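User: Show me sequence and structure for the first protein, then do the same for the second.

Assistant: Starting with the first protein.
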Amino acid sequence: MFKRLTLAAAAWLCATAAIAADAWPTRPITLVVPGAAGGSTDIPARLLALKLGERLGQPVIVDNRPGAGGSIGASQVARAQPDGYTVLVGNTGSNAINYTAYKKLPYRPEDFVALTDMISFSNVLVVPQASPVRSLDDLLKAARQAPGKLSFSSAGVGQTTHLMGEVLRERTGVDVVHVPYRGSAPATAAIVSGETQFMFDNLTASLVHIKAGKLHPIAVTGAQREPELPNVPTTTELGLQDFDKVGWMGFFLPAQTPPAVVRKLTDGLVAVLRDPEVARRYRELGGRPGGMPQAQFTQLVDNDRKSWGALITSRQLQLD
């Protein structure tokens, strides 16, 4: 009798969960952005949130949780109820780099299920427009003439904007100072104002300032030149190896989220990312619109976790 009751209860719970998943969403959804408002993750997330809300029939709220290399926002989602209402807009730092960069991290890869990418982009090496530096050779010469005087800003310890600077320091032997900020927006503001002397910024954050004549681009980190900056060489063209990595941002849910909810949200995200207006706005930001299949994005995240991990380990760039 007890066994029959247990089986019946299990069947009832499964049926209830299926009904709830089918009805999802019935209340607002929160996109947790592990970066500052106005930053490189925040801007494309807000562009997407309105259209996603229209498609799903519920408001989509952006909640900024910057700090600790994205781990504050990521850990919040890892601990959230796995019901589809709390979504992480993760990135290369929070969901690939951090696992090796930090010995003590409040979340693990298995705490999340990856959905799809939102946008991908190169980093661009920039200096303030008023700087006399106009090339990579100029920057290295200035750094060698004043050891420990030049500083570079980053969106936070362990972000690609930080690690690219560390690799430059290791590869060229220059003595420069890392200045981490709480997110992309304040880091970019620092380089625009001249508070720091250079930065490997996300192209999506810097492009508007480059076009406005506030920043001067020296190089991009992708394998090929960027359509928005056709005259700016790649770091590989300038003789720097292993600088051809690109960054990405994408969507993650807590592990154990019902598969039906995962599918419904993923389908909604992909549909919005394929919207011509959204794709156009993302390209204007200097990025490539996402929307890859879930399995492909999951593999990308796993591959980047391993490749960045190998780089961090080989360079002994432990961050805590």
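Switching to the second protein now.
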Amino acid sequence: MRRAVVIGAGGQIGRPAVEALAKDGWEVTAVSRGGGRDEGTPGGVRTRRLDREDDAALTALIGDGCDLVVDLVAYSARHARQLTGLADRIGAAVVMSTVSVYDDGTGRGFDTMSEPDGLPRYPVPITEDQSTVPPGDATYSTRKAALERELLAAADRLPTTVLRPGAIHGPYSPLPRELYFVKRNLDGRSRRVLAFRGESLFHTSAARNVAELIRLAAARPGFRVLNACDPRPPTVAEIGAAVDAVMGVETRTVLLDGAASASVGRSPWSVDVPVVCDMTAAERELGYRPVVTYRDNLPETVEWLTRRLTEQDWREAFWTLARAYPDLFDYAAEDAWFAARRT
């Protein structure tokens, strides 16, 4: 039986990836920092504990060898070198990157969006040969670019599929963008404001669709870089309407012609330019067909978020999101904004 090691198996993508590989006949070792088994772990899957920074522990985990390593937490050139240093023991790899490595050819990208004249103008759609940010240690995007660059340098020794997802959605997310709408509905907010007329497009990636790409790439070893996104991405206004439909609520949405007014109208999808990725290469090279649409995946996400909010304050449950968007639920500012419109 083919042996696969999934690093980051307890996370948002790791859980469906383990399930997809196990169903496809792989002998899977599910690796996470905690190393535990939860109720969603398929029977027959082994679980192991690993500190991703421990070189010796990773070497011991791979042991005499495996057919596949799926690395969902690799984040730097050093992590890439950990893998390529074990190339003689690994048949192939699938490694997670991000669409935020793209720049628009003029040095503007995700990292420059808040700078004067820093808004990127990406082609629509973005193909995998679009230029990327310089590799480095400064930001999430540059570190992922460094990861990709190091893997590319070892392409002749370790066949690797690099996947670039967009706005990942599904349960177990540390940065669940859908919380923006779910929490407002649970808090009884009957009005909301969306910047850029609610037309922002930030290509979504269902964790289950990314897992399907992992499954397909596992069966076809080779070096390739692929976008890892859903079918047609919904606008932020369409996402809000879809969440409302799942939760059975009605909300009045006020649309701003331009950017948010401080925190008012700012959502985790609020971008002035569309970020839409081309999925032709994945279809051509792997025969990829998405297994879920955004709407298909939403009820499970809403149910999970609702349950988590009964257990913890949102800042504790989703501290990554809270750090990125500390004023996401500034209701006082919204109420003041609505009051000022009436005067």
